[in-house]
Amino acid sequence: MTDELDWQLCRSFLAVLDEGSLSGAARALGLTQPTIGRHVEALEQALATPLFVRSPQGLVPTEAALEIRPHAEAMRAAAASLRRAVSGAEGGARGTVRLTASEVVGAEVLPPMLARFRERHPGIALELVLSNRTQDLLKRESDIAIRMIRPEQSALLSRKVGVTTLGLYAHRDYLARHGTPRSMEELGGQALIGFDQESPSIQTLRAMGFRMGREGFVFRTDSDLAQLALIRAGAGIGVCQVGVARREEALVHVLPEDFAYALDLWVVMHENLRTSEPMRLVYDHLAAELKAYALTSRR
């Protein structure tokens, strides 16, 4: 096995994994199918192990391929981070900054903040990743993250900017049809909107005393945006950030004294990025904007 691996070989390997075929990988990367085939063969020779088996369904990854996939993905993230760092070092407030946030924060909270940032700094491109998975900033999957839990890694630069409160909300038309519950016990007779499978965020709420379970939900989805859309459509009662719901007159806060969970808002980035002007500008801007948003998200 060789001591050094060519990133281009790993890039083609990941494309084949993602697309399931040499032809699909070639289209994705803008290369020819024979070139992708040679890259895969070269990587197999370098690692001294087969990575794919041909089948009627296409190329099936071997166990070795699945084992090295996380390492190849880390190389891809590092290469993207390197490109962003170089673009930001060309002088002035120019470059690319990759952000990650939860579905609701990324789709409902950040867009006007990012629009205002671009008006001030048109030379900085922004990449926004919506994911309820906590991306690893140490592996540089993203540059800056908005998180609801306190970061634990010492190599991260983090700033708590406030608290966002979760409450129960329903469209006023739904409540006009089905009545407004006056206690948590009366929720049992309502159409409740909630999760299908417990995520880390739900487990965090569990530790805070959250007791609602999937068996009580008549609408189940693990997409927070889909839950919000169902609430807006008048399908039932669901959980929403107070700061988001307050923007819409038609959404009514249900049982505000009985159901309220406060989550911290953190802006986080790798400490090595603090000297990058584009990173610092985005970090400081989001910290200020989210601090103002947190004031609207109190119960």
Automatic annotation (TrEMBL):
One GO biological process from the UniProt record?
A: DNA-templated transcription
This protein's source sits in the domain of life called Bacteria
Domain (HTH lysR-type): residue spans on this chain:
5-62
Q: Which InterPro entries match?
A: LysR-type_TF_proteobact-type, LysR_HTH_N, LysR_subst-bd, WH-like_DNA-bd_sf, WH_DNA-bd_sf
GO MF annotation: an example: DNA-binding transcription factor activity
Keywords linked to the UniProt accession: DNA-binding, Transcription, Transcription regulation
Output the PANTHER family linked to this UniProt entry.
HTH-TYPE TRANSCRIPTIONAL REGULATOR (PTHR30537), TRANSCRIPTIONAL REGULATORY PROTEIN (PTHR30537:SF3)
| Family to which the UniProt record says this protein belongs | Belongs to the LysR transcriptional regulatory family.
Indicate what this protein is called per its UniProt record: LysR family transcriptional regulator
Specify the taxonomic lineage. Answer: Bacteria, Pseudomonadati, Myxococcota, Myxococcia, Myxococcales
